[in-house]
Amino acid sequence: QVQLVESGGGLVQAGDSLRLSCACAASGRTFSRFGMGWFRQAPGKEREFVAAISWTSNTYYADAVKGRFTISRDNAKNTAYLQMNSLKPEDTAVYYCAADMGYPRSPGVAGAEYDYWGQGTQVTVSS
Question: What is the model's pLDDT at position 29?
Answer without folding.
Answer: 85
